[in-house]
Specification:
The protein is of the alpha+beta class and 157 residues long. 32% of the residues lie in helices and 27% in strands. The strands form three sheets. The chain has a four-stranded antiparallel sheet. A three-stranded antiparallel sheet has the order 1-2-3. The protein has a two-stranded antiparallel ribbon with strand order 4-6. Helix 3 runs antiparallel to helix 5. The chain is globular and about 45 Å long.
């Protein structure tokens, strides 16, 4: 059975993302839902034992959300064979404190075949935490979710 991917546009200030509060950002960001669960919730659950072991439990799930345009463009490029984002991975989230994706994020490797798009080999860009998760989306459903994200990004569909 295929997994379900959904994107939701949200106000980062209402979500109390530190970077947005500091910048007083009025631009909306995107939450990623995997099988009905927001990705930060999933990651926090997986990261908690590692963060606690390091003595920094607040690191678990300490992510902000990306702007729709950035996320859409990175995910779309990852579908192109040999592209930067296909080779290096897509940063799905940003640092909750500063809003920079390179500061504190989780990357995912994306591949596809005729029927499915796969998100696998999740990794934190600064920790060697084991996520042991992957997702397989029906290509038709993935493309529909991407069309929604494209609309959020302000592209005319």
């Amino acid at each position: 059975m295929a997994d379900k991917l959904e994107f939701k546009l949200v106000d980062p200030i209402e979500k109390k993302e530190e970077w947005a509060l500091e910048l007083k950002s009025t631009q909306k960001v995107v939450e990623i839902y995997l099988n009905g669960r927001e990705i930060v919730e999933i990651l926090k659950e997986l990261e908690s034992p590692y963060a606690e072991e390091e003595g920094h439990p607040s690191l678990a799930g300490a992510y902000g959300h990306n702007y729709a345009k950035e996320l859409y463009e990175d995910l779309a490029e990852a579908m192109t064979e040999g592209s930067y984002f296909q080779e290096k991975g897509v940063e799905l989230l940003c640092c909750n404190d500063c809003g920079d994706r390179g500061c504190w994020s989780v990357l995912v490797m994306i591949k596809q075949d005729e029927d499915y798009v796969y998100w696998e080999r999740f990794k934190n860009n600064h920790r060697k935490w084991d996520y042991d998760i992957s997702f397989r989306f029906a290509k038709k459903d993935y493309e529909q979710a991407m069309q929604q994200l494209k609309a959020f990004a302000g592209y005319i569909i």
